[in-house]
Amino acid sequence: MALTEENREGRRRAPLAPWLKTTLMTVGSIAVTMLGLLFVTFVIGRVMPIDPVLAIVGERASQSTYQEVYEQLGLDKPLIVQFFYYLWDVIHGDFGMSLLNARPVSEDIARVFPATLELATLGVFAGIVLGVPLGVIAAVRRGSWIDQIARVVALVGYSMPIFWLGLMGLLVFYGILGWVGGPGRLDIFYVDIVPQRTGMILLDSALDGNWEVFRNAFSHIVLPASLLGYYSLAYISRMTRSFMLEQLSAEYITTARVKGMSERAVIWRHAFRNIRVQLITVIALSYANLLEGSVLTEIIFSWPGIGSYITTALLSADMNAVLGGTVVVGLIFILLNIFSDLLYKVFDPRSK
Amino acid sequence: MNAFNRLLTSAAIGLAVAVTSAPAGFAETPANMLVIANRIDDITTLDPAESFEFAGSDVSRNVYQKLVNFDPNDLDAGYQPEVAESWDVSDDGKTITFTIRDGLTFHSGNPVTAADVEYSLRRAVILNKTPSFILTQFGFSAENVEQTIVADGNTVTIVTDQPYATSFVLNCLTATIGGIVDMKTVMANEVDGDMGNTWLKTNTAGSGAYKLVSWKPNDSVTLQSNPGYYRGAPAMERVIVRHVQESASQRLLLERGDIDIARNLNPEDVAGASSAEGIKVIDELKGRLMYASLNQKHPILSKPEVRQAFKYLVDYEGMQNSFLKGQYTIHQNFLPKTYLGASNEAPFTYDVAKAKELLAAAGVDGLEIEVGVREAQERIEIAQSLQNSLAQVGIKMNITVGTAKQILARYRSRELDVYLGAWGPDYPDPQTNAGTFAYNPDNSDAAQATGLLAWRNAWDTDGLTPLVDAAVTENDRDARIQMYKDIQAKFRETSPFVIMFQQIEQSAMRDNVTNFSTGQAITSASYWQVTK
Asked: What residue intervals traverse the membrane (chain A) (predicted)?
């Protein structure tokens, strides 16, 4: 009894370190979210009106061949059993083989994801660099011509079909002016020249010091990245404007101005500083959306990214690929959320 | 200028400089390189024993040789010697002995021998993948291949279970599954007794005009010419097939000269590209047929006059000249044009009065039926046209649009009143379509012959089944052709199939590309004969 009491005392005296507790909670929440995501995706994949067996055997196959493949895929087993088999494989890093191109799904994702990552990163970068200042100016000069332009730019960005805008961009800048490279990541002459390290051609060519390939890759990525950047810009600039307006009407701003602080300091050091946390959320969401893969952009620009990969897999009933792709996209969302939370703590003293 | 304006301006200028300093596109591809834009997302495997899709067949045709093959410069001539230099047929018509050509080598450097041919054909039978029926229909099975497919010296003998028309057997050997693989290389990559299947899905071991450099799914296929090819080194040393999904993107690439051939232009882009300088368009008939079929379990649709009436209720000309323009041509027989025994007869025209007469004779006055269509634009548009025509004779047709799983499952279980869809031949012999449209030895539900279109529509073929059986054993080529023409004549009049259109493929290419062929209806694209 005495020993038990002592043990309890001991436990009370040595609680979990805060960092360990936070880490465990984060890992736990990732695990639960991923499990939920996997389960929902798996169930949706199984109840959707597409037939992976038909995709493999073709519509002319006999009933016996159909049945054989049906059993090979484990589709004759109860759904929950199928799910646990799948979960077991995923935990071991195995997303299964793509039913349609006979390669491990993890290998496919490692091939297509860097293409999307490269495009999305450039796109969101353009969106931030242009969108944030545009939003700030629009708020500071509310009602001025620049605010009106920002409004029109954002409105066009929201409302213009990306398919049409992409094709027009290609027609003008590639077809007529010849300023940029055409659809695809590289001209055929440069394909497979630089060794693949990250799968991101700009980075790989820079690491290799091959600036000719870099320039060519840049000429191909600039248009789709600008297009995605434009859509990010539209969102980021409107949100920045709205956040800034809220801050600029606050009393502490009036106080700062009354104290004789320069307008620059008022805007940057006071108002802008206070919208950083909100902006991080907007930018993280924008980035996550781009990382999901913009299917239409990828189709128009023949960009072999994760968006078109998942879409093709879905249309071809390649459920292993769909599940694998969805899990990766889900993981990206979760990781970006965690990253945003960390940044909040850096920028917002209250979070600490 | 304040800080914000400076930042904005510099960002805009930076972007503009970056854009304008990028190099302009190249004017044309190198003279020894062929660059093709095509949709290649249907490639699932490169193993010839398993490959059964269009883009995969294109790769296979260039990488693997077969015993006999089609000459892309003269497709009408039919099969020609390739790995087999010659062949003899036994008197009983069941044994064919092929003599293997000397001096052929695989890309690995290994010689092509009779043992490789024996291995390749046996392997295709033993693996029993989807296209294996093309060979097993001759009676080959995993149990008997050691007796029925045998190499001896430089000859290979195959023994079929009954005498078949030699043209039937040899036509089947030109299919992708007839590709000869390098036994030593394949067996060196065997895993768990899979006869190298896993390895060959993504690698190749052939002796054709090209060897595979890379296949990146949904991205590209790159081929390098085989300088030791027995017909001589191909002029195009490298062939790159790029996956470009969108028609407009293909057209821009072609007009800029970044590709030589665009294979998937829609009618608007074909019209636009053909008027551009330096571009020509070639049309080739393909094997795909568009048809509607009437379920013979339906008490009214099974009446002969109703079957006939439907054939007069299709606005063939109207559709061909509007939304199908350039993509499909009118065709009313189950053998595609360019096939052995194909018929050009097209007796049915859009004739509402005639259809009304026939329906009156059948005592039909008002009818409501359901048509199942897969969600593809052209099929839905055809169904809508048919719906309008049928409405004029008092038939209400409800269109059910669904995925392949939804529609095909109901079609295969004989549940749909009417099915509207497409059918493509599996191998370049008339039996491929005769054996499904006009062949149904057991029409009972229990037969579950879901692979036969006649069975799916519960049609007992009105006596055509034995005629189809007879045609596959007729050794006289002209007599065989006449038999298929006769079968199709009867089929046109009595069958519940309303065959409407045959597909046309339009390839747009740079003016300097010559001899390119997608293989018409009977085979796939080959590149060794192409020059620029």
From this structure: 20-44, 119-140, 152-177, 217-236, 279-301, 321-344
